[in-house]
Model the fold of this input.
Amino acid sequence: MLLLSCYFGFGACWASFVTTMTSRHLLAPQRSYPPYSICEHCHHRLHAWQLCPISGWLSQGGRCYWCHCRLSALAPVTEALTGGSWAVLAPSNFTNWLALLLVSSGCLMMVTTDWQAQWITPPCLVSFAGLLVLTPVLHHWLLDSFLALLWLSLTFAPGFGRGDGEWLAILTLVIGARPTCAVILLGCLLALSNRRLWHHQPVPLIPYLTGGLWLTLLTYPTGWPW
Done:
């Protein structure tokens, strides 16, 4: 139990670190930041208790302690899912540990950029290679290749982002067609929680697909039914 708690804590802290660094240095490379964390709204310096993964957001009620502006729920959600994935998968050797670190880092970077700016960095898709170590599955290459081409063709469909198709195509070739379909189903169900969808406004899909991926990975230790 102590080891699992350590894995959860590491995953949550790593998610907090990667999302923060992505927001600062990938989404706003020209902007200067002080050598400490600040509120994005009032620029007040944050205390240590506010920086704690998950609990820092919950203790403030989802709003800044000083200016009371609403804080994005992206941070606690990614921290909880990443921490949970680390705890459940619990890498047993250095190879698995490195693979999980690679996958979580790439996913967190893509989630952050898509959520805030609606684009992803294609090199981050290389991180899916770590899934070959974490979830070795028997591939049906004909079906996998067909679906991968289908996802790529959908990039030209209206309302479907090009990065979304590339994301799904690479994932299909890595973990297989059937697990990818489960990821899409869970991702779409998670996307229903976004109010913008009900007002016919653009919704970033990668964060929800990544949530579906993490939820699918959480069931892997007990065996996927495919």
About this structure: The chain has a mean pLDDT of 88. DSSP finds ten helices and no strands in the chain. The radius of gyration is 18 Å. The CA atoms of residues 107 and 210 lie 7 Å apart.
